[in-house]
Design a protein that fits this description.
Oligomer: single chain
Strand content: 5-15%
Radius of gyration: 37 Å
Number of strands: 14
Helix content: 25-40%
Order of helices and strands: HHHEEEEEHEEEHEEHEEHHHHHHHHEEH
Shape: extended
Amino acid sequence: MSFFARPSSSAVKISAPSADEPDSPKPSKKDNTQRQCRNILIYGHCKFQDKGCIYYHPPRDAPSPVPPDSPTPSAALPAQAVNAPVFVPKAPVNPASPTPAPAVPASIQQQPSTSSDSSSEQSSSQPPEQHYEQEPAPEHDQYDPYNPYSYPTHGAEGSEEGQMPSMNPYELPPGYDAATLDPFYTPAVNFHTQPLNYHLYTLPRPEALSHRYFISDDVREELQRRSETVRAAPPPGLGLPEELQGYHSLVPLEPIGAERRKFGNWYSTLYRAVNSSDGATYVLRRVENFRLMQQAAFSGIEAWSRIRHPNIVTVHEAFTTRAFNDSSLVVVYDDHPNAQTLYEAHIKAKPPQFQHGRLQAQSNRVPERTVWSYIIQIANAIRAAHDAGLAVRLIDATKILVTGKNRVRLGSCGVVDVLMYDIPVDLAYAQQDDLTMFGALILQLCNGTMSAMNNVAKALEIIGRNYSADLKSVVLFLISKPGTHKTVGQLFDMIGSRLLTELDEAQNAVDRLEGELMSELENGRLVRLLCKFGFINERPEHNHETRWSETGDRYIVKLFRDYVFHQVDELGRPVVNLTHVLTCLNKLDAGTDERIMLVSRDEQSCLVVSYREVKACIESAFSELTRG
C-alpha cells in the first residue's frame, strides 16, 4: 500500500472532438406540438395542460404517455435526466494538438442519436430561459482537476477582477471515482487546499500499525493543541511589561475587553509567562491595587508551596510589583494549557446546536458518575490542605480547573491568605467553611446554575429527582451546621466503595498512557537507526578518501538504503510504503537471519545478504566514523 503517495484522481477527462472528425448532422427541428411535455415524464401530469401549454399531452386514459412519431423512452433512463445540464468545456481545445479519444465509463455515457427526433428531444431538455456562454478560462495558475499534483494556490483563487473563475460542473475533484458516481449527480468542486491541522501524515496510516508505532490520534492532537497554546504570542499593543521578576513573554489568558473579574474587592487578571531560569511556562495571577502591609503575609504562600498534590494547582511564589504602573500582588502557579473552569465546562450556558434537523439547546446536566469523580478528587484535595494545617478558603466553580478527562484541580490557593492576612480567622472555623462551600459547589453542578443556594429546598428536590439518594445525603451532610462530627474523614466514610471505582479508573488511565509511551519508544529506536544512515550514506569524504561511502561495507549500506527507500514498481513509479520501511528497519535493528537481494543501480550486479550482515556493516562504518 502506498503510504506517502499523493492522492491520484480517478476522474476521466472529457475532451472536445478534434477538428478532423466529421461533424455530426444537426438535428432537425420538429413542431413543439409533437414533443412530449416534460411534466408528464416527471410528475405524470401537467397543470398547464388546459392553460396554454404548447407541448404534447397524451389522453388521460392512454396506457402510456408516448407521443406519436417519437421514440419510446428507455425504462432505465431516470427522471433526473431531464434536468441534466449541458456540457460546457472549461477551456477551448487547441485543434493543432492531438486529442485523445474520450474514455467515459459506461454508466455516464450517452447513447448516440439515431434519429433527428431523439436529437431534438435531447436538445429540448434544457429550459428555454437558460443560455450558456463559454467563458475563457484564465491561463495563469490554472487548476487542472485531472492532474493529482496540481493544487490551487491562494494567490490564484480569483480572476483579475476579484471574481471566482467559472467552474465546469462535470469536473471531478481528486479522489472521486467516476464509475461509482450517480451519472446525474454533479459534485461540488469548489474545494481549496487547506493547511494541515494536527496531522502528521498525508494518508491514513496502515491499520496494522495503529497501536504499535504511533500514539492515538486523540492523545496526539490534544498534546499538539496544548503545545500550540503554550507558544501563542500576545496580540500587539497591550502595554504589558517585558520582564517581571524573572518572568517574560506575558500573554493574557482572559479575553481582551471582556468583563473584568473580581477577586473579593480587587480586580484580578491571569497571565501566562516564561521563567528565565528554567524556560518553563507558569500562570501569574495579578491582583490589582493591593498594598502589602506586612511581609509576614507571604507565610501562607510558603506553606502552600510545600504541598504537591495531584488535585491542587501547585503554588510556587508570590511577590509585589509596580511594573503595571500600580501596586500589584502576583502569585505564580503551575501552567495547565487549555484548562477550563468547572463553570465554563458544566454551568455556563452553551449555544444551541442542530440535532435531527432542528436547533436544540444543549443540556448542562452532569452525569452522576462524573459528579462522584469530582467529589472524590476535591475532597482529597481538601483533606491534603487540612492535614497540612491550612484551609482552602476558596472553593468556587470559577476557581476549580478541569485539566483533562474528568480531572479537576483546586486553583488560586493561597491568595485569600495574603489578602485577608490582617483579619484573624480561626482555623477550625475556616476548615468547616470549606466543607460548606464544597456542598454549595455540588448543588451548583447538579442544578446547572450558580444561584442554587438561593433556594436550597428546590435544589435538593432536583437532586433527588435526577441523582441517587447517596449523592443527596452527601450534599445534606456538607451544607449542615458546623460541628465536631463534620470532617472530611467522615465524608470519605459516606463515599464508601465509590473510592474503589475511582481508583480503578485512575489505574486504567495509567495503563493507557504507558501503552502510548511504549509506542513512542519504538519511534525513538528507529530514529537513532536512521541517524546512522544519514551519517554514513553519501558522505563526501572521510580520512581524505573521496569514495569512502562507495566502497567496502559502506557500499552494502548504500544498496540497503536503496532497497528500503528507493524501490519502484513495475511501471517505474516510486514505492512510498511506510509498512515496508518500518518492517525492514525493525528487522535490521533486530539483526535477523532473513536474506534479501540488493541490486546495484546499474542492475549489473546483485548481492544476497542477511539483515544481520547489513547491521554488522552499519556498526563497522559508524564505529569508524566515531573513532575520528
